[in-house]
Amino acid sequence: MEHDTTSRAVRQASVAAQALAEHERLVYWVVRQQWLGVLSYAAAVQAGRLALWRAARGYDPQRGVAFSTCAASAMRQPFDRNRVADYQAFLAQQRGWLRRRRGQR
What we know:
The protein is 82% helix and 0% strand. Helix 2 crosses helix 3 (41-58), helix 2 (24-34) runs parallel beside helix 4 (67-102) and helix 3 (41-58) crosses helix 4 (67-102). It has a single domain (2-102), classed as Rna Polymerase Sigma Factor, Chain: A (Orthogonal Bundle), CATH 1.10.1740. It contains four helices and no strands. The chain has helices at 2-22, 24-34, 41-58, 67-102. The chain is an all-alpha fold. The longest helix has 36 residues, at 67-102.
């Protein structure tokens, strides 16, 4: 039983590594489409690669969805979360600036 689990994990790692190699260009495409400059370009590419790796590990071909579709969707998520977080941080910064300007704490 343990050998079967180990071989399955090795196969999954192999499939994930192959997907990473085959879809590396997709990472750069999504980053160019979604990047707002909040993260450095290198950090954005790294976030895209991590999302690609997660997508490769969770991909199920029996669902009938192409891997590239699943991966692109997974890669857009970190950027969407960053947009929301950055906008909230911007608003908080502006509120702080207004309070300081008015002499409030």
